[in-house]
Amino acid sequence: MMNIIQNRNNNQLVIVLEGRLDISTAPDLDKVVNNDLDGVTELVFDLEKLDYISSVGLRVLLFAQKKMNRQGSMKVINVNEMVMDVFAAMGFADIMKIEQK
Amino acid sequence: MNAADRLFLEILFVAAILMTILFVNNIFLYKQKIKDRISMMLISGIATCVFEILWVVIEKHPALTVLTYLCVSIYCLLFVLFAALLNQYMLERLGLQPSKKWTFIGYVLPVAMIAVLCLTTHWTRLLFWVDQGGEVHTEVFFDTFFQGVVYLYMFTPLFIAIYYLTVGKNKRPAGVEIPSSLFVFGIMAPALYMLELLLLDEGMDAYENTSLPISLALVFLVTNVSTHKALNTRAKMEAVESDLRIASKIQADALPTVAPEFPEHPEVSLRASMNTAKEVGGDFYDYFAIDDYRICFLIADVSGKGTPAALFMMTAKTMIKDYATSKESTSEIFNAVNLRLCENNESGMFATAWIGILDTRTMMLQFTNAGHNYPVYMRAEKPCEMIKDVHGLFLGGMDLTRYKKAEIQLEPGDRLLLYTDGVVEAHDRDDKLYGDDRLMVMVEKTRDLPGEQVLERIFEDVSEFAAGVPQFDDITMVVLTIQGQGGDAQ
To answer: Is A84 on the interface with B (CB under 8 A)?
Structure first.
């Protein structure tokens, strides 16, 4: 289960993810990334309440990063230790702005 | 009710039951939807039988005249509907799709006219009428227009098929086979009709509108079509399965199976093992000599499973080997491979990978980790540890990734274990993970065993841990051992 909460403020979009981002929930986020980023120049993922992320989830984040590279900036905030380990292990630290909790 | 009526009713029941069985089979056995054309056709056929039964039952009851009118009218409309669906179905099998104009002329207009005739027949007596005794009398329009439409619907596909097979050979749409079931249906329906008339020993006028011959012929048609479909599906599945087997074989053949012989470097031992979860997986490993001094070895895990993963794996593996001979360092190899994998990577596939090049002159190991699991590093006389270096994002992720590299000095007695997710993310029954720690304990335990036995023992331990849980991911491992002085480890 995962909740996706979107807070749009002009050109800024904050996406709060709660729960697990895995093979069953990643398609939902994929839809958001595909459809709801028009006109967004500042994208923020708040992962404070994200318990788990799998490689499929990482793929969606990577896709969002690629999209934002073209139209603005993106950062990931409130990353907990477990998720941070995954980010570090997969080499995400080099390509994304990541702020730990 | 006389004997003839009773026999007639029995025939109708049999017809209705036959079609019901076909309908149930179509829904439950062949997993078709109610909206499927065969299902719709059968429903209308069953309903036709039901109203025909009602007709026979309430006929000759003067009090039920209105009901009789209603019943016969509904029967007429259902019968036309049934015949129209049958017609459309068979035309479809012949590869024909009537245009809007023809749908109107061929289906809407005749059905509307029959509806109008039904509604007004009480006054016009064109189609049929019910006398004071409650008996139904069919009229000239019933025999010509109504039955004409019904039989035209039923037999036009047959005539078209004959046309296609004879004079219109060149006009047949490409790829359309004339179903033999069509001909059997076309011959069976009238033949059964004649047989029925003969058996009932009645005049041609008595029961000319029974649904039984059509139902029986339909049984043949539908069964034939369904069986044909099922056989087709099975043939297709067999083809896919055989493709998968071949893909699996190609993939397995792409991985080095024999232990590598580096005769110039007896002190270096490399062993690998792979246990795939599905027929085709995304893990791979490789090892080969780059030149007289350097040995390259690697392991990788492609995201996803099945044939797409296998295709991506083959591409990645080939590229890595290509660049390994032309580039100077592990980081440059991955820079080049990653760039190529990112080109037109619309499917968004990627691979985590770990590559090492060992210079046997100095025993210096250079390596690059592209988002892959941390290798277990075991040194002589020291506890195991993990090399937690990551030098960039997984391959195929971001085209601008510049990979870094690291070096470690290996000594005799050192050992390095590379592995994929399948090992540390194996689950037990309680959903607990096998984990890094348990893996390190196993490497420690097998310290004095030769490489191939280390791999066997770890795989056994993982299998034991995950007993009763189907293997979810490929389990792949590569182990590098630098033989101690005098080669005591092997």
So the answer is: no
